[in-house]
TrEMBL record:
Protein name: ascorbate ferrireductase (transmembrane)
Domain Cytochrome b561 per the UniProt entry, residue ranges: 11-217
Organism for this UniProt entry: Steatornis caripensis
Stored Gene3D superfamilies: 1.20.120.1770
Membrane topology of the entry: Multi-pass membrane protein
Keyword NAD: no
InterPro entries: CYB561D1/2, Cyt_b561/ferric_Rdtase_TM
Origin superkingdom: Eukaryota
Length: 222
């Protein structure tokens, strides 16, 4: 028996809501697991994985999910409020990432180790630099008159697209970090695969959200 268009739409929204709820749980659960594993304060290095997990798993994920019509925790608030919270979360994510980068750099210096020689190190550095540029570019949305030849709608579209690239870089950096000796000696077997699924799940949810926003804008223009 074929589903009606209304039933299909309702089912699709339900699936998106379920995926979004799972993303919220993973966004909080992953850094919690990293905190248990790293035991922050036990060493200088222990702060690095926690800060990076907070930046790219929790804060940045929540900053993007805040615009989801199905799963935003602030969907009853005005867009102006959601934009401000988005800014606050993104700024906190950037601060955590910069601090995490500074700590691992100083820790390697203390131990006489080479800097940025692994895929995780290079991707992590690129991610932090890209995130810094993305946050700076977000200022243009507050002052769109600075870009006279660009409409506000186009600025929003490019900001969302470039933000998705930055988020995927962050997820890739987390996944590469889970391939490190520190992580693989502590997390093995099925637990390792489950951990790897965490950034993969949130990235799929965020990609779906951004693509749907893009399609909505395209339809509204016709």
């Amino acid at each position: 028996m074929a589903l009606t268009a209304e039933t299909e739409s309702r089912l699709y929204r339900s699936l998106r809501a379920a995926a979004g709820a799972a993303a919220h749980l993973v966004a909080l659960g992953f850094p919690t697991g990293v905190a248990v594993l790293a035991r922050p304060g036990s060493s200088l290095f222990s702060w690095h994985p926690l800060l990076m997990a907070l930046a790219f798993s929790f804060l940045m994920t929540e900053a993007l999910l805040i615009f989801s019509p199905e799963t935003s925790l602030l969907r009853s608030f005005s867009r102006k409020v959601r934009v401000r919270v988005h800014w606050a979360l993104q700024l906190l994510a950037l601060l955590c990432a910069l601090l995490g980068l500074g700590i691992i750099t100083y820790n390697k210096h203390l131990n006489g180790k080479a800097h940025f020689v692994t895929w995780h190190g290079v991707t992590g550095l690129l991610t932090v630099l890209y995130t810094s540029a993305q946050c700076a570019g977000g200022v243009l949305l507050l002052y769109p008159k600075l870009m006279k030849n660009w409409t506000l709608a186009k600025l929003k579209l490019y900001h969302a697209t470039s933000g998705l690239v930055g988020y995927l870089l962050g997820c890739a950096s987390l996944m590469l970090g889970m391939c490190s000796l520190w992580f693989t000696t502590s997390v093995t077997s099925v637990s390792w695969y489950l951990a790897m699924l965490c950034p993969l799940l949130t990235s799929l949810v965020i990609m779906n959200q951004v693509s749907n926003a893009y399609l909505y804008r395209k339809r509204s223009q016709h």
